[in-house]
Amino acid sequence: MVHGQKNILSIFYNYKNQSVKKYYVALALIIAITACNGSNTENKDAKATAPAATATSDLSSNPDYQKGIELIAKSDCLTCHKVSEKLTGPAYKDVAAKYENTDANVSLLAEKIIKGGQGVWSPIPMTPHAALSEADAKQMVKYILLLRNK
């Protein structure tokens, strides 16, 4: 009888662990889907936020600034980032303060946008944006790095 009780307990324990694992996998999928959601509502919010940043800066005539802000407004970036305050990810101004505007840093950060990243700002990973071209990612980074000291 004791042997049978151990089997029942081990079956229950294994079932419980599998349920918890399924819960965490489901939770991770929901977070990833939410972070990558490119719905029209978010894009409208992005377009509304992006011009406000343009209006407050003398950089608005810079072509890198203009192209970068247009690309960001069309993407899901503003789901996790804002210009001046931290959301899920760092504020663009914090990124600009940390990285000098060099070709090497533009390439490094563009690669992080495309491939995703984790651990520099927090343990929360940035989702990869594999569909984004390298040229567009670099243009977005150029815009972000122009916010240094602004």
Written overview of the protein:
The protein has helices spanning about 1-35, 40-55, 65-75, 90-100, 105-115, 135-145. The chain is an all-alpha fold. Helix 2 runs antiparallel to helix 3, helix 3 packs across helix 6 (about 135-145) and helix 5 packs across helix 6 (about 135-145). The radius of gyration is 21 Å and the shape is elongated.
For the record, give the distance between the C-alpha atoms at the N and C termini, rounded to a whole number.
74 Å
What is the succession of H and E elements?
HHHHHH
Structural class: mainly alpha
Radius of gyration: 21 Å
Q: Tally the helices: what do you get?
A: 6
Helix content: 55-70%
Name of the CATH architecture of the largest domain = Orthogonal Bundle
CATH superfamily of the largest domain: Cytochrome c-like domain
Mean model confidence by pLDDT = 78
**Which fold name corresponds to the CATH topology of the largest domain?**
Cytochrome Bc1 Complex, Chain D, domain 2
Per DSSP, what share of the residues sits in E-state strands of 2 or more residues? Answer: under 5%
* Tally of DSSP β-strands: 0
Low-confidence stretches: 38-56
Number of domains: 2
Relevant terms:
single chain; 150 residues; mainly alpha; Cytochrome Bc1 Complex, Chain D, domain 2; elongated
List the helices and strands and how they pair.
Layout: H1 2-36, H2 40-55, H3 63-74, H4 92-98, H5 103-115, H6 134-145
Helix pairs in contact: 2-3, 3-6, 5-6
